[in-house]
Here is the input.
Amino acid sequence: MDESGALNLVLWLPVIGTLLLLPIHAQNKRAIQGLTFAVMAVQFVLTAWLYAAFDPSVGGLQFSTRLPWIGDWGVYYSIGLDGYNVLLVMLTSFLGPLVVAGAVNAVHKDVKLFHAMLFLIQFAMQGTFLAQDLFLFYVFWEAMLIPMFLIIGIWGGERRVYATLKFVLYTAFGSILMLAAIIYLVHSLNLTGGLRSFAFEDLYQARLPVDTQIVLLGAFALSFAIKVPVVPLHTWLPDAHVEAPTPGSVILAGVLLKMGTYGFMKLGFPLFPEASRLFMPWIALLGVISIVYGACLALVQTDIKKIIAYSSISHLGYVMLGLASLDLIGVQGAILQMVSHGLVAGGLFLMVGMIYERCHTRELAAYGGLARALPVFSVFFLVLTLASIGLPTTSGFAGEFLVLLGAFNAAWPLHLAGDSFTLWLAVIAVSGVVLGALYMLWFAQRFLFGAVRAPHQPLMDLDLRERSILAVLLVAIFAIGLYPAEPLSKTELAAKHYIELVQRTSTGAAP
Here is the structure.
Protein backbone atom coordinates (compact mmCIF):
# COMPACT_ATOMS: atom_id res chain seq x y z
CA MET A 1 0.00 0.00 0.00
CA ASP A 2 1.34 3.46 -0.88
CA GLU A 3 1.18 6.38 1.52
CA SER A 4 -1.87 8.05 -0.06
CA GLY A 5 -3.80 4.79 0.19
CA ALA A 6 -2.72 4.44 3.82
CA LEU A 7 -3.94 7.95 4.59
CA ASN A 8 -7.34 7.18 3.08
CA LEU A 9 -7.45 4.02 5.17
CA VAL A 10 -6.63 6.04 8.30
CA LEU A 11 -9.62 8.25 7.54
CA TRP A 12 -12.09 5.51 6.61
CA LEU A 13 -11.11 2.80 9.12
CA PRO A 14 -13.65 4.05 11.71
CA VAL A 15 -16.42 3.71 9.13
CA ILE A 16 -15.25 0.18 8.36
CA GLY A 17 -15.20 -0.49 12.10
CA THR A 18 -18.80 0.71 12.41
CA LEU A 19 -19.86 -1.73 9.69
CA LEU A 20 -17.98 -4.55 11.41
CA LEU A 21 -19.94 -3.85 14.59
CA LEU A 22 -23.28 -4.50 12.91
CA PRO A 23 -23.30 -8.34 13.05
CA ILE A 24 -22.06 -8.48 16.67
CA HIS A 25 -24.80 -9.15 19.23
CA ALA A 26 -25.58 -6.06 21.29
CA GLN A 27 -25.06 -7.98 24.55
CA ASN A 28 -21.58 -9.21 23.61
CA LYS A 29 -19.81 -6.33 25.34
CA ARG A 30 -16.36 -7.88 25.26
CA ALA A 31 -16.45 -8.52 21.50
CA ILE A 32 -17.66 -4.96 20.84
CA GLN A 33 -14.91 -3.45 22.97
CA GLY A 34 -12.25 -5.74 21.50
CA LEU A 35 -13.18 -4.94 17.91
CA THR A 36 -13.32 -1.20 18.56
CA PHE A 37 -9.94 -1.23 20.29
CA ALA A 38 -8.38 -3.31 17.50
CA VAL A 39 -9.60 -0.98 14.74
CA MET A 40 -8.45 2.10 16.64
CA ALA A 41 -5.07 0.47 17.26
CA VAL A 42 -4.64 -0.31 13.56
CA GLN A 43 -5.50 3.29 12.75
CA PHE A 44 -2.81 4.47 15.17
CA VAL A 45 -0.19 2.13 13.68
CA LEU A 46 -0.94 3.39 10.17
CA THR A 47 -0.81 6.99 11.34
CA ALA A 48 2.50 6.40 13.10
CA TRP A 49 3.89 4.96 9.85
CA LEU A 50 2.75 8.01 7.92
CA TYR A 51 4.16 10.30 10.60
CA ALA A 52 7.53 8.60 10.28
CA ALA A 53 7.37 8.85 6.48
CA PHE A 54 6.37 12.53 6.55
CA ASP A 55 9.21 14.60 5.12
CA PRO A 56 9.61 17.87 7.07
CA SER A 57 11.75 19.39 4.33
CA VAL A 58 8.89 19.29 1.81
CA GLY A 59 6.35 22.11 1.92
CA GLY A 60 2.70 21.63 1.05
CA LEU A 61 0.65 18.45 1.02
CA GLN A 62 2.02 14.93 1.25
CA PHE A 63 0.24 11.61 0.65
CA SER A 64 -2.63 13.58 -0.88
CA THR A 65 -5.72 12.39 -2.74
CA ARG A 66 -7.89 14.65 -4.91
CA LEU A 67 -10.95 13.21 -6.63
CA PRO A 68 -14.00 14.97 -8.16
CA TRP A 69 -17.01 14.90 -5.87
CA ILE A 70 -19.49 17.55 -7.08
CA GLY A 71 -17.77 18.68 -10.24
CA ASP A 72 -20.23 21.41 -11.25
CA TRP A 73 -19.65 23.15 -7.91
CA GLY A 74 -15.88 22.72 -7.92
CA VAL A 75 -16.05 20.39 -4.92
CA TYR A 76 -13.39 17.70 -4.55
CA TYR A 77 -12.69 14.89 -2.14
CA SER A 78 -9.28 16.32 -1.24
CA ILE A 79 -7.26 15.15 1.75
CA GLY A 80 -3.60 15.26 2.66
CA LEU A 81 -1.02 15.65 5.41
CA ASP A 82 0.96 18.84 5.94
CA GLY A 83 2.72 20.56 8.79
CA TYR A 84 -0.55 22.10 9.94
CA ASN A 85 -2.30 18.81 10.65
CA VAL A 86 0.30 16.04 10.94
CA LEU A 87 0.66 16.32 14.73
CA LEU A 88 -3.09 16.69 15.27
CA VAL A 89 -3.91 13.66 13.12
CA MET A 90 -1.31 11.74 15.12
CA LEU A 91 -2.82 12.96 18.40
CA THR A 92 -6.32 11.89 17.34
CA SER A 93 -5.17 8.41 16.35
CA PHE A 94 -3.06 8.10 19.51
CA LEU A 95 -5.95 8.93 21.84
CA GLY A 96 -8.44 6.68 19.99
CA PRO A 97 -7.46 3.29 21.49
CA LEU A 98 -6.82 4.89 24.90
CA VAL A 99 -10.37 6.28 24.95
CA VAL A 100 -11.76 2.83 24.11
CA ALA A 101 -9.62 1.15 26.78
CA GLY A 102 -10.66 3.77 29.31
CA ALA A 103 -14.36 3.25 28.55
CA VAL A 104 -14.43 -0.42 29.58
CA ASN A 105 -16.25 0.28 32.86
CA ALA A 106 -17.67 3.71 32.03
CA VAL A 107 -20.61 2.70 29.81
CA HIS A 108 -23.17 0.05 30.74
CA LYS A 109 -26.13 0.66 28.43
CA ASP A 110 -26.37 0.54 24.64
CA VAL A 111 -22.69 -0.43 24.47
CA LYS A 112 -22.81 -1.23 20.78
CA LEU A 113 -24.32 2.14 19.88
CA PHE A 114 -21.80 3.91 22.09
CA HIS A 115 -18.82 2.34 20.33
CA ALA A 116 -20.37 3.11 16.97
CA MET A 117 -20.51 6.77 18.05
CA LEU A 118 -16.84 6.60 19.04
CA PHE A 119 -16.05 5.38 15.53
CA LEU A 120 -18.11 8.10 13.87
CA ILE A 121 -16.67 10.96 15.88
CA GLN A 122 -13.17 9.64 15.20
CA PHE A 123 -13.99 9.65 11.49
CA ALA A 124 -15.36 13.19 11.61
CA MET A 125 -12.42 14.56 13.61
CA GLN A 126 -9.82 13.00 11.32
CA GLY A 127 -11.75 14.22 8.30
CA THR A 128 -11.81 17.79 9.63
CA PHE A 129 -8.03 17.79 10.04
CA LEU A 130 -7.29 16.05 6.74
CA ALA A 131 -9.73 17.95 4.49
CA GLN A 132 -8.12 20.34 1.99
CA ASP A 133 -11.42 21.42 0.40
CA LEU A 134 -13.60 23.92 2.28
CA PHE A 135 -16.86 22.14 1.40
CA LEU A 136 -15.45 18.83 2.65
CA PHE A 137 -14.08 20.56 5.75
CA TYR A 138 -17.51 21.99 6.56
CA VAL A 139 -19.21 18.61 6.12
CA PHE A 140 -16.84 16.98 8.60
CA TRP A 141 -17.04 20.01 10.91
CA GLU A 142 -20.80 19.66 11.17
CA ALA A 143 -20.73 15.86 11.28
CA MET A 144 -18.84 15.99 14.57
CA LEU A 145 -21.95 17.40 16.27
CA ILE A 146 -24.04 14.28 15.74
CA PRO A 147 -22.01 11.64 17.63
CA MET A 148 -21.00 14.10 20.39
CA PHE A 149 -24.66 15.11 20.77
CA LEU A 150 -25.56 11.45 21.30
CA ILE A 151 -22.56 10.64 23.53
CA ILE A 152 -23.50 13.39 25.98
CA GLY A 153 -27.28 13.12 25.51
CA ILE A 154 -27.57 9.34 26.00
CA TRP A 155 -24.67 8.41 28.29
CA GLY A 156 -24.23 11.69 30.18
CA GLY A 157 -25.18 12.73 33.70
CA GLU A 158 -28.41 14.01 35.20
CA ARG A 159 -28.35 17.35 33.35
CA ARG A 160 -27.24 15.82 30.05
CA VAL A 161 -30.17 17.21 28.03
CA TYR A 162 -29.41 20.77 29.13
CA ALA A 163 -25.67 20.36 28.45
CA THR A 164 -26.30 18.77 25.05
CA LEU A 165 -28.71 21.46 23.86
CA LYS A 166 -26.37 24.21 25.03
CA PHE A 167 -23.42 22.62 23.24
CA VAL A 168 -25.36 22.16 20.00
CA LEU A 169 -26.97 25.62 20.03
CA TYR A 170 -23.63 27.35 20.57
CA THR A 171 -21.78 25.41 17.90
CA ALA A 172 -24.65 25.38 15.38
CA PHE A 173 -25.10 29.15 15.60
CA GLY A 174 -21.45 29.73 14.76
CA SER A 175 -21.51 27.13 12.01
CA ILE A 176 -24.48 28.72 10.24
CA LEU A 177 -22.65 32.03 10.01
CA MET A 178 -19.55 30.26 8.74
CA LEU A 179 -21.60 28.54 6.04
CA ALA A 180 -22.90 31.90 4.81
CA ALA A 181 -19.32 33.22 4.76
CA ILE A 182 -18.13 30.17 2.81
CA ILE A 183 -20.78 30.68 0.14
CA TYR A 184 -19.91 34.36 -0.23
CA LEU A 185 -16.17 33.63 -0.34
CA VAL A 186 -16.47 31.01 -3.08
CA HIS A 187 -18.87 33.21 -5.03
CA SER A 188 -16.40 36.11 -4.82
CA LEU A 189 -13.59 33.91 -6.10
CA ASN A 190 -15.76 32.88 -9.03
CA LEU A 191 -16.65 36.50 -9.88
CA THR A 192 -13.15 37.95 -9.60
CA GLY A 193 -11.07 35.07 -10.92
CA GLY A 194 -13.53 33.01 -12.90
CA LEU A 195 -12.65 30.02 -10.73
CA ARG A 196 -15.25 27.91 -8.96
CA SER A 197 -13.28 26.11 -6.29
CA PHE A 198 -13.39 25.22 -2.60
CA ALA A 199 -9.70 24.21 -2.47
CA PHE A 200 -7.83 25.93 0.36
CA GLU A 201 -4.93 26.96 -1.88
CA ASP A 202 -7.32 28.59 -4.38
CA LEU A 203 -9.24 30.42 -1.67
CA TYR A 204 -6.03 31.82 -0.24
CA GLN A 205 -5.68 33.76 -3.48
CA ALA A 206 -9.07 35.48 -3.22
CA ARG A 207 -8.88 39.28 -3.47
CA LEU A 208 -11.36 40.90 -1.13
CA PRO A 209 -11.77 44.46 0.17
CA VAL A 210 -10.77 44.93 3.80
CA ASP A 211 -14.33 45.68 4.94
CA THR A 212 -15.54 42.43 3.35
CA GLN A 213 -12.66 40.55 4.96
CA ILE A 214 -13.70 41.93 8.35
CA VAL A 215 -17.26 40.63 8.00
CA LEU A 216 -16.19 37.21 6.73
CA LEU A 217 -13.46 36.88 9.35
CA GLY A 218 -16.06 37.66 11.99
CA ALA A 219 -18.25 34.78 10.77
CA PHE A 220 -15.38 32.29 10.65
CA ALA A 221 -13.90 33.52 13.92
CA LEU A 222 -17.17 33.19 15.81
CA SER A 223 -17.51 29.54 14.79
CA PHE A 224 -13.90 28.74 15.64
CA ALA A 225 -13.87 30.77 18.88
CA ILE A 226 -16.90 28.87 20.19
CA LYS A 227 -15.16 25.58 19.56
CA VAL A 228 -11.86 26.62 21.27
CA PRO A 229 -13.60 28.07 23.41
CA VAL A 230 -12.46 31.67 23.83
CA VAL A 231 -13.87 33.80 26.65
CA PRO A 232 -16.70 34.94 26.64
CA LEU A 233 -17.97 32.13 24.37
CA HIS A 234 -16.89 29.40 26.79
CA THR A 235 -19.93 28.75 28.97
CA TRP A 236 -21.01 25.58 27.16
CA LEU A 237 -17.74 23.79 27.94
CA PRO A 238 -17.97 23.20 31.73
CA ASP A 239 -21.52 21.89 31.42
CA ALA A 240 -20.56 19.59 28.55
CA HIS A 241 -17.54 18.23 30.45
CA VAL A 242 -19.42 17.69 33.70
CA GLU A 243 -22.32 15.83 32.08
CA ALA A 244 -20.34 13.87 29.47
CA PRO A 245 -19.19 10.34 30.27
CA THR A 246 -15.44 9.93 30.74
CA PRO A 247 -14.73 9.01 27.09
CA GLY A 248 -16.73 12.04 25.94
CA SER A 249 -14.72 14.35 28.20
CA VAL A 250 -11.45 12.90 26.91
CA ILE A 251 -12.53 13.42 23.29
CA LEU A 252 -13.71 16.97 24.04
CA ALA A 253 -10.53 18.02 25.81
CA GLY A 254 -8.11 15.90 23.83
CA VAL A 255 -9.19 16.62 20.27
CA LEU A 256 -12.46 18.48 19.76
CA LEU A 257 -11.32 21.78 21.27
CA LYS A 258 -8.33 21.77 18.90
CA MET A 259 -10.73 22.08 15.97
CA GLY A 260 -11.21 25.75 16.80
CA THR A 261 -7.53 26.63 17.08
CA TYR A 262 -6.75 24.57 13.97
CA GLY A 263 -9.53 26.40 12.12
CA PHE A 264 -8.03 29.78 13.02
CA MET A 265 -4.57 28.64 11.89
CA LYS A 266 -5.55 26.87 8.68
CA LEU A 267 -8.46 29.03 7.51
CA GLY A 268 -9.59 31.98 9.60
CA PHE A 269 -6.45 34.10 9.66
CA PRO A 270 -4.86 33.08 6.30
CA LEU A 271 -8.06 33.56 4.28
CA PHE A 272 -8.51 37.15 5.46
CA PRO A 273 -5.00 38.48 6.05
CA GLU A 274 -5.56 42.22 6.22
CA ALA A 275 -8.55 41.92 8.53
CA SER A 276 -6.60 39.43 10.66
CA ARG A 277 -3.63 41.77 11.06
CA LEU A 278 -6.00 44.57 11.95
CA PHE A 279 -7.50 42.54 14.80
CA MET A 280 -4.44 40.52 15.90
CA PRO A 281 -3.82 42.64 19.02
CA TRP A 282 -7.42 42.03 20.09
CA ILE A 283 -7.15 38.32 19.31
CA ALA A 284 -4.06 38.24 21.53
CA LEU A 285 -6.01 40.14 24.20
CA LEU A 286 -8.82 37.56 24.13
CA GLY A 287 -6.19 34.82 24.42
CA VAL A 288 -4.67 36.46 27.51
CA ILE A 289 -8.12 37.02 29.03
CA SER A 290 -8.85 33.33 28.51
CA ILE A 291 -5.54 32.40 30.18
CA VAL A 292 -6.17 34.45 33.31
CA TYR A 293 -9.96 34.12 33.53
CA GLY A 294 -9.90 30.35 33.00
CA ALA A 295 -7.23 29.96 35.69
CA CYS A 296 -9.13 32.13 38.18
CA LEU A 297 -12.35 30.18 37.63
CA ALA A 298 -10.48 26.88 38.07
CA LEU A 299 -9.34 28.13 41.49
CA VAL A 300 -12.88 28.37 42.87
CA GLN A 301 -14.44 25.16 41.54
CA THR A 302 -15.60 22.35 43.81
CA ASP A 303 -16.30 19.79 41.03
CA ILE A 304 -13.07 18.10 39.92
CA LYS A 305 -14.25 17.91 36.31
CA LYS A 306 -14.92 21.64 36.26
CA ILE A 307 -11.42 22.37 37.51
CA ILE A 308 -9.93 20.57 34.52
CA ALA A 309 -12.53 22.08 32.16
CA TYR A 310 -11.64 25.64 33.14
CA SER A 311 -7.95 24.80 33.00
CA SER A 312 -8.52 23.84 29.36
CA ILE A 313 -9.83 27.33 28.63
CA SER A 314 -6.67 28.75 30.19
CA HIS A 315 -4.26 26.46 28.33
CA LEU A 316 -5.89 27.04 24.96
CA GLY A 317 -5.59 30.77 25.54
CA TYR A 318 -1.85 30.21 25.09
CA VAL A 319 -2.54 28.71 21.68
CA MET A 320 -4.46 31.80 20.60
CA LEU A 321 -1.67 34.02 21.89
CA GLY A 322 0.92 32.03 19.94
CA LEU A 323 -1.06 32.19 16.71
CA ALA A 324 -1.61 35.93 17.14
CA SER A 325 2.11 36.57 17.68
CA LEU A 326 2.90 35.86 14.00
CA ASP A 327 6.33 34.77 15.24
CA LEU A 328 7.80 31.47 14.05
CA ILE A 329 8.63 30.29 17.57
CA GLY A 330 5.24 31.39 18.89
CA VAL A 331 3.28 29.67 16.12
CA GLN A 332 5.22 26.43 16.51
CA GLY A 333 4.69 26.66 20.26
CA ALA A 334 0.95 27.02 19.67
CA ILE A 335 0.87 23.82 17.62
CA LEU A 336 2.91 21.99 20.27
CA GLN A 337 0.65 23.34 23.00
CA MET A 338 -2.39 21.89 21.19
CA VAL A 339 -0.81 18.44 21.26
CA SER A 340 0.42 18.76 24.84
CA HIS A 341 -2.96 19.88 26.13
CA GLY A 342 -4.64 16.97 24.36
CA LEU A 343 -2.36 14.49 26.13
CA VAL A 344 -2.37 16.08 29.58
CA ALA A 345 -6.04 17.06 29.80
CA GLY A 346 -7.05 13.73 28.26
CA GLY A 347 -5.03 11.92 30.92
CA LEU A 348 -6.53 13.98 33.75
CA PHE A 349 -10.08 13.31 32.58
CA LEU A 350 -9.28 9.60 32.33
CA MET A 351 -8.06 9.68 35.94
CA VAL A 352 -11.20 11.53 37.05
CA GLY A 353 -13.21 8.73 35.43
CA MET A 354 -11.13 6.09 37.22
CA ILE A 355 -11.70 7.61 40.66
CA TYR A 356 -15.38 8.25 39.90
CA GLU A 357 -15.87 4.55 39.14
CA ARG A 358 -14.57 3.82 42.66
CA CYS A 359 -16.14 6.62 44.72
CA HIS A 360 -19.11 7.76 42.57
CA THR A 361 -18.68 11.45 43.31
CA ARG A 362 -16.92 14.37 41.64
CA GLU A 363 -17.10 16.74 44.62
CA LEU A 364 -13.62 17.72 45.72
CA ALA A 365 -14.73 17.99 49.35
CA ALA A 366 -15.46 14.25 49.38
CA TYR A 367 -11.80 13.39 48.76
CA GLY A 368 -8.59 13.53 50.73
CA GLY A 369 -5.80 11.22 51.77
CA LEU A 370 -5.83 9.29 48.50
CA ALA A 371 -2.02 9.20 48.48
CA ARG A 372 -2.15 6.61 51.26
CA ALA A 373 -5.13 4.66 49.95
CA LEU A 374 -4.18 4.73 46.24
CA PRO A 375 -0.41 5.30 45.94
CA VAL A 376 -0.07 4.29 42.28
CA PHE A 377 -3.06 6.43 41.29
CA SER A 378 -1.55 9.35 43.21
CA VAL A 379 1.83 9.10 41.49
CA PHE A 380 0.25 9.19 38.04
CA PHE A 381 -2.00 12.06 39.06
CA LEU A 382 0.88 14.11 40.43
CA VAL A 383 2.95 13.63 37.27
CA LEU A 384 0.02 14.76 35.10
CA THR A 385 -0.50 17.71 37.46
CA LEU A 386 3.13 18.76 37.03
CA ALA A 387 2.83 18.39 33.26
CA SER A 388 -0.27 20.59 33.34
CA ILE A 389 1.58 23.40 35.14
CA GLY A 390 4.46 23.15 32.67
CA LEU A 391 7.24 21.41 34.58
CA PRO A 392 10.44 21.28 32.50
CA THR A 393 10.95 17.92 30.73
CA THR A 394 7.20 17.66 30.09
CA SER A 395 5.32 18.64 26.94
CA GLY A 396 3.47 21.38 28.82
CA PHE A 397 6.69 23.28 29.43
CA ALA A 398 7.80 23.07 25.79
CA GLY A 399 4.52 24.41 24.42
CA GLU A 400 3.95 27.25 26.89
CA PHE A 401 7.60 28.37 26.92
CA LEU A 402 7.71 28.67 23.13
CA VAL A 403 4.41 30.56 23.03
CA LEU A 404 5.58 33.06 25.63
CA LEU A 405 8.96 33.42 23.93
CA GLY A 406 7.23 34.06 20.60
CA ALA A 407 4.90 36.60 22.22
CA PHE A 408 7.86 38.54 23.63
CA ASN A 409 9.73 38.29 20.31
CA ALA A 410 6.75 39.87 18.53
CA ALA A 411 6.08 42.49 21.22
CA TRP A 412 9.59 43.83 21.80
CA PRO A 413 10.07 45.66 18.45
CA LEU A 414 6.64 47.26 18.90
CA HIS A 415 7.60 48.31 22.42
CA LEU A 416 10.77 49.97 21.14
CA ALA A 417 8.62 51.80 18.57
CA GLY A 418 6.42 53.17 21.34
CA ASP A 419 3.59 50.59 21.36
CA SER A 420 3.72 48.64 24.62
CA PHE A 421 0.25 47.06 24.39
CA THR A 422 1.40 43.64 23.15
CA LEU A 423 4.34 43.63 25.56
CA TRP A 424 1.98 44.07 28.50
CA LEU A 425 -0.17 41.25 27.13
CA ALA A 426 2.88 38.97 27.09
CA VAL A 427 3.76 39.99 30.66
CA ILE A 428 0.21 39.31 31.88
CA ALA A 429 0.22 35.96 30.06
CA VAL A 430 3.19 34.88 32.20
CA SER A 431 0.96 35.22 35.25
CA GLY A 432 -1.08 32.36 33.84
CA VAL A 433 1.86 30.06 34.59
CA VAL A 434 1.77 31.11 38.25
CA LEU A 435 -2.01 30.80 38.44
CA GLY A 436 -1.82 27.39 36.75
CA ALA A 437 0.61 26.15 39.38
CA LEU A 438 -1.61 27.61 42.10
CA TYR A 439 -4.88 25.93 41.11
CA MET A 440 -3.39 22.59 40.09
CA LEU A 441 -1.20 22.20 43.20
CA TRP A 442 -4.10 23.32 45.39
CA PHE A 443 -6.26 20.74 43.63
CA ALA A 444 -3.67 17.99 44.15
CA GLN A 445 -3.13 18.93 47.81
CA ARG A 446 -6.84 18.68 48.67
CA PHE A 447 -7.39 15.64 46.45
CA LEU A 448 -4.46 13.47 47.46
CA PHE A 449 -3.25 14.63 50.86
CA GLY A 450 -4.60 15.78 54.20
CA ALA A 451 -7.28 14.00 56.20
CA VAL A 452 -8.87 10.92 54.66
CA ARG A 453 -12.33 11.90 53.43
CA ALA A 454 -12.90 9.33 50.68
CA PRO A 455 -15.52 6.60 51.22
CA HIS A 456 -14.58 4.28 54.09
CA GLN A 457 -14.76 1.06 52.11
CA PRO A 458 -11.36 -0.19 50.87
CA LEU A 459 -10.43 1.32 47.51
CA MET A 460 -8.68 -0.72 44.85
CA ASP A 461 -5.64 0.92 43.30
CA LEU A 462 -5.17 1.08 39.55
CA ASP A 463 -5.31 -2.23 37.74
CA LEU A 464 -3.04 -3.27 34.88
CA ARG A 465 -5.34 -1.85 32.20
CA GLU A 466 -5.50 1.55 33.87
CA ARG A 467 -1.77 1.64 34.57
CA SER A 468 -1.01 0.77 30.96
CA ILE A 469 -3.24 3.58 29.62
CA LEU A 470 -1.61 6.19 31.84
CA ALA A 471 1.92 4.89 31.27
CA VAL A 472 1.50 5.25 27.50
CA LEU A 473 0.29 8.82 27.97
CA LEU A 474 3.25 9.70 30.20
CA VAL A 475 5.70 8.26 27.68
CA ALA A 476 4.28 10.59 25.02
CA ILE A 477 4.28 13.59 27.39
CA PHE A 478 7.93 13.11 28.36
CA ALA A 479 9.00 12.23 24.82
CA ILE A 480 7.74 15.61 23.58
CA GLY A 481 9.10 17.43 26.62
CA LEU A 482 12.57 15.92 26.37
CA TYR A 483 12.88 16.04 22.59
CA PRO A 484 10.58 18.73 21.18
CA ALA A 485 12.85 19.16 18.15
CA GLU A 486 11.25 16.15 16.46
CA PRO A 487 7.63 17.41 16.38
CA LEU A 488 8.80 20.98 15.83
CA SER A 489 10.69 19.93 12.69
CA LYS A 490 7.43 18.61 11.23
CA THR A 491 5.69 21.96 11.70
CA GLU A 492 8.37 24.51 10.78
CA LEU A 493 7.52 24.97 7.10
CA ALA A 494 3.79 25.12 7.85
CA ALA A 495 4.37 27.77 10.52
CA LYS A 496 6.37 29.84 8.04
CA HIS A 497 3.63 29.37 5.43
CA TYR A 498 0.99 30.50 7.92
CA ILE A 499 2.95 33.66 8.77
CA GLU A 500 3.53 34.45 5.06
CA LEU A 501 -0.18 34.06 4.30
CA VAL A 502 -1.29 36.33 7.12
CA GLN A 503 1.34 38.96 6.31
CA ARG A 504 0.48 39.21 2.61
CA THR A 505 -1.65 42.05 1.25
CA SER A 506 -4.82 41.79 -0.83
CA THR A 507 -2.67 41.91 -3.94
CA GLY A 508 -0.70 38.89 -2.79
CA ALA A 509 2.55 40.77 -2.19
CA ALA A 510 4.39 40.90 1.08
CA PRO A 511 3.47 43.93 3.18
Q: What stands out?
A: The first strand starts at residue 62 and ends at 70. Confidence is low (pLDDT under 50) at residues 507-511.
